[in-house]
Amino acid sequence: MKPERIRRFLLWGIGGTIVVLMAVVGVATYFSTQHEVDELFDAELAQYARLINRLLVEANTVSLGEQFVIPLPDGVALDEEASKSTGTVPFMADAVHKYERKIAFQVWRSDGTMLLRSESAPAQQPVASKVSGFGSMVVADNRWTTFALFNARLDVWVLTAQRNDVRDELSLYLALGQSGPLALSLIPMLLLVWWVVRRGMASIATLSSTLGAIDPAHARTVTLDLPEELRPVQVAVNRLLEAQHQYISREKRFIADVSHELRTPLSILAVHSKNLDQARQRSDVDTAARAIRMGVRRLSYLVSQLMELEKLEQVQKIHTSSHDLAVLVQESLAQVSPGLLERVDWALDIPAGIIVRVDHGLFLVALRNVLDNACKYAADQSTVTVRFMSGGLFEVSNIVVPGHEPDLQRIGERFFRHPAHAATEGSGLGLTLLARIFHLHQLSPCYRFIPPDRFMVQTDLSPVLERVTRQGLGPDMLKTD
Predict the structure, then answer these.
(1) What CATH number should be reported for the domain whose range is 228-311?
(2) Residues whose CB falls within 8 Å of the CB of residue 114, separated by 6 or more in sequence, listed in order
(3) Is the peptide bond before 452 cis (omega within 30 degrees of 0)?
């Protein structure tokens, strides 16, 4: 997702959430205010009725034999603007409030005779049902909330009422009074959210533009002054770029190696092919054909080694299982060329019961390469010794031809071959493969030369050794993680 789309998503998401929450709060505030106002007005009606009952009826202020009407003044209306500006209500004897005509009371005798009423109450019709408590009634197309109080001693009903539109209007005013500031703060709040999101997304936009301008073939690291939250992203990106750089470097090296190593055998094949075309005698034809076959075999071996090495470069994790070391050595010997096997004698000292935990296919490749090199570079009819010694040391040793002593400083280097072995079939990759496979198994090859003529390849198999049951080596050794 692009930074602009992320910014838009955050703005709409946060802004929409704020608006919805404020709307919910406003609706909840309105209904809560309406409920509280209704309770307040209900209490006022009840108190109003009890006051009339106490002061006017029981105090005999009004004669129970006549009807008495409390009029409303016809004077000017109360100046609401003046009261708002001063915060107080000015006293005016002839002033009438706009809500006074929406509040009414009546006093009725049980026989249906009206004793007392306000001018806002109907003259002939009770403003409330003569049932004690709160109620509701429609009078003159207006719904009233009512309260009825019965005085049993005087046998009279005191009825009070208030129009519902007054209640709704006051509830709305109170709700707007509370929700209005929230609504007015909505625009500054949204502007603040926009500023925060824009500022927070600035670093992401910078990182995105920097990554977009990177040349994958040359970039190594991204160095930006980012907030703490984005630094893990920068670290991950740098790790990815470094891995990509290593991968590209390996690919370039592989291509360079292939082009370099294939140039010579292909040139040799071209020369021998030309010789074959120009040959006139049978012996010349046989010689050229034999050289071509040898060149093709060497080229095939080189390509297979290159492919094997490239595949190993991509391997980061191996799948291990338990195998008998003696069986692995026998399987590796079976993969060595019969011609090489027959040019030396073999002395194997690998007892059965030595169990190692390795990747079967890869470990066979490693053993085959070290055994192949041992018999390839050993003196004719000499002895190659393969043995497992106490302590987990595995060793392959052979006798080298005088004057062909190995260069221990460069041995194992990719494509390096001793000048004395230039005519020997091979590509110089065998020990490179060995080192890579041993590294995946957490092993390390060690090369030693003991004058005058013994060369040894050793490795400590303890990291992959599970158990040893060879008699004479002591009790079973169990590998624990």
Answers:
(1) 1.10.287
(2) 67, 106, 107, 108, 123
(3) yes
213, containing H or E segment? none
pLDDT at 461: 93
Residue ranges per domain, the chain? 3-77+92-186, 228-311, 317-468
CA-to-CA separations, 163 to 96, 140, 401, in angstroms, rounded:
17, 11, 122
Give the phi and the psi of residue 359 in degrees, each rounded to 5: -80, 115
Find out whether 182 and 26 touch, Cβ atoms under 8 Å.
yes
Phi, psi of 116 (to 5 degrees): -155, 140
Phi, psi angle pair for 224, to nearest 5°: -135, 150
| Interhelix angle 360-376/325-335, nearest 10 degrees | 60
Give the Cα separation of 336 and 342 in Å (integer).
10
Dihedrals φ, ψ of 163, to 5°?
-70, 140
* Angle at CA of residue 88, ends 87 and 90, nearest 5°: 140
| Total-model pTM | 0.44
Give the distance between the most distant pair of CA atoms in the chain: 160
Distance of CA 391 to the CA centre of its chain: 47
Least confidently predicted of 80-84, 266-270, 414-418: 80-84
Q: Which two tokens stand for residue 329?
A: 């050595």
- pLDDT band of residue 115 (cuts 50, 70, 90) is confident
Domain 317-468 bears CATH identifier 3.30.565.10: yes
Which of the 8 DSSP states describes residue 214? -
Please give the helix or strand (H or E) that residue 347 lies within, else none: strand 345-349
Give, for 157, the enclosing helix (H) or strand (E).
strand 156-163
In whole angstroms, what is the distance from residue 240 CA to residue 374 CA? Answer: 41
Q: How far is CA 450 from CA 92, 377, 400, 406, 453, in A?
A: 127, 16, 10, 11, 6
Contact 251, 281 (CB under 8 A): no
| Cα–Cα distance for residue pair 137/139, rounded to 1 Å | 6
Q: How far apart are the first and last CA of the chain?
A: 44
Q: Which two tokens stand for residue 24?
A: 């919910």
The pLDDT confidence band at residue 230, using thresholds 50, 70 and 90, is low
Structure tokens at 461: 């198999």
